[in-house]
Amino acid sequence: MSKIFKKYVAILLLITGIVCAAAPQNEMNSILASVNGTPISLQDVLPLTRAEEFRVFSSCVGEELQKRILEIRRRATDELIDRKLILEDYAGKSFELSDKDIESALDDMAEKSGLRSRAEFRDTLRRQGTDIEDVKKNIRESMIVQFMLHREYLTVKSVTPEKMYALYLKNQKAAKDNSSVELAMILLDKSNSSRSQYIAGELNKNPSRFAALAAQYSSGPGKEEGGKLGKIRSDLLRPEFARVLKSPEIEKVYGPIATPEGTVFLKVLSCTSLQQKSFKESLPEIREQLEKEQRRQSRKNYTQRLRKNAIIRYFF
Fold first, then answer.
1. Cβ contacts of residue 259 below 8 Å, gap of 6+?
2. Quick one: pLDDT at residue 27?
3. I want to staple 121 with a disulfide (CB 3.0 to 4.6 A). Which of 39, 110, 181, 221 is the partner?
4. What angle do CA 252, 255, 256 make, to 5 degrees?
């Protein structure tokens, strides 16, 4: 067995021990919900929630901790309810997974765990309090759930060119909306515009003097802070600034720029700009995004349909 797998097993056993020590056996066996008469206990839920509960424990206390843990366990309970309903739905279908697929998945699991033989895998599982038949059962059920979800998705899959282009436009707008630039400004009003050539020369020789020149000569806001204007969304820039800041570079000085208020010099202090891709370049990413959303919606519709004909009770 590899050192990594030994460490993983040790951590898993340690966490299991901590949780079991923190929760009495009667609490571990407490029923959280039932679906069509089949109970779901805390012991069923904890393997799904343990890691997340530990993270919450490190950041929350008191009532907030209890609230977050209940939310985590409710979400996991819902996942188990959906899983049981999907397995029940599969039971009425006329197709079956092959033993070969399950054995292959079992071999992959052993190989990824660094185990060299089926016998070594059996020994490892036995030390963890389980056996290969339990693992096979879990593998089979997971395969069934994925198969049924994929089968449901195929009935609604519809990634058309129109949908892809609509999403492309939406993404382009989001990228534009999320682009921002942080600026500093020197404004020479009309009475001071004769200094424009001098300021331009000084900035060309030494752009780092921008703040000092702003404090000395600017008529604009924030001159005491080096002419800082703060961050602004790129699509909200006034037209005169937008024209020269199409591809802003950090620490670069732009100007002179003629405005109704006078002559302006701008310095880019920082910028957040998402790269704009062509529709053709974006196609793989857009297709994946659409399919992911359709899979999510397909799963939601499927499980909601199954729930309508189920008897589900919650006890927490």
1. 187, 238, 240
2. 58
3. 110
4. 160
Residues in the chain: 316
| Count of Cβ atoms closer than 10 Å to residue 67 Cβ | 12
Which two tokens mark 253? 């000085």
Determine if the pTM surpasses 0.70: no
33: left (phi over 0), alpha (psi -120 to 50) or beta: beta
Would the pLDDT of 11 be above 50?
no
Residue 168's CB: how many other CB atoms inside 10 A?
19
Judged by phi (left if over 0) then psi (alpha if -120 to 50, else beta), residue 17 lies in alpha
Q: 43 is written with which tokens? A: 């012991």
Is the pLDDT at 95 greater than 80? The verdict is: no
Q: Which residue has the tokens 């189920």?
A: 310
Q: CA angle, 76 as apex, 75 and 80 as ends, to 5°?
A: 120
